[in-house]
Amino acid sequence: MNHRAHPAPAETARVPAQTRSGETAGEATGHPAGTPAARGEHTHGERPMPQPRPAVQRASVRGQILDALRTALASGELAPGEVYSAPALGERFGVSATPVREAMQQLALEGAVEVVPNRGFRVVERGARELAELAEVRALIEVPVMMRLARSVPAERWAMLRPLAEESVRVAASGCRATYAEADRAFHRAVLALAGNEQLVQIAEDLQRRALPRLRGTRGELMADAAEHAALLEALIAGELDAVRALVAGHFAAVR
């Protein structure tokens, strides 16, 4: 009699809910900062993390974990300077260490974390000078492109981006830094995409991710950033080039 091998059950990921604004990874888990658990190391007797979200299929688990880690970085749940191990994070997400390690390697390529041999991954902590340098590089790339687009893209094309600007304002009002980080990227991505250069969009997004700590601000700071999106778009629709130039320059100066 032939026996058919049954496929192994699909691995699932259970992504934990976001922490409240301002909590550190240690506070969110109930462990004091600086303890092994707060650093993401595996410890015996660790109380289990809540698992509020439904499981997802293994086929998309790496992408789900990558998204969850990016959210945790933006919200501050994964704190700058702290070291986290793949096994401990895998335990948190309900998956093996492998997809976590793969996602962390991607974040290392993006400059968000760095590998710590035999320990895990340390969240990069950027100083004011490094953030200013990143802002300067972004300005050198994005400002000339936006000014060229301001002269060539018709008003009706700009008007199609209004929902994205409005969404960034709505999300900023909620005070959720992680969600605003994605809304901010979506707006800039849509503007730059009008240039028809995918390499430009990817480079700009990479720089924006590296400058992520600038979004760890107050609700008021997020709202001010979002308001600049709305004002810039209205100036682009109206074809007011002087206003566009001033708004773009001010927007990138503000990220310093």
For the secondary structure, the number of strands is 3
CATH architecture classification of the largest domain = Up-down Bundle
**Fraction of residues in H or I helices:** 55-70%
Order of helices and strands: HHEHHEEHHHHHHH
The CATH topology label of the largest domain is: Four Helix Bundle (Hemerythrin (Met), subunit A)
Structural class: mainly alpha
CATH homology superfamily of the largest domain: GntR ligand-binding domain-like
- Report the average pLDDT across residues: 79
Ends apart, CA distance between termini: 71 Å
CATH class of the largest domain: Mainly Alpha
Order of strands, widest sheet: 1-3-2
C-alpha Rg, in Å?
21 Å
Structure write-up:
The chain has helices at 25-29, 61-75, 86-93, 97-109, 128-152, 155-159, 162-174, 177-193, 198-210, 219-238, 241-254; strands at 83-84, 113-116, 120-123. The longest helix has 25 residues, at 128-152. Residues 1-10, 15-41 and 52-56 have low confidence and may be disordered. Strands 1-3-2 form a three-stranded antiparallel sheet. It folds into two domains: 25-123, Arc Repressor Mutant, subunit A (Orthogonal Bundle), CATH 1.10.10.10; 128-254, Up-down Bundle (Four Helix Bundle (Hemerythrin (Met), subunit A)). The protein is mainly alpha-helical. The chain is elongated and about 55 Å long.
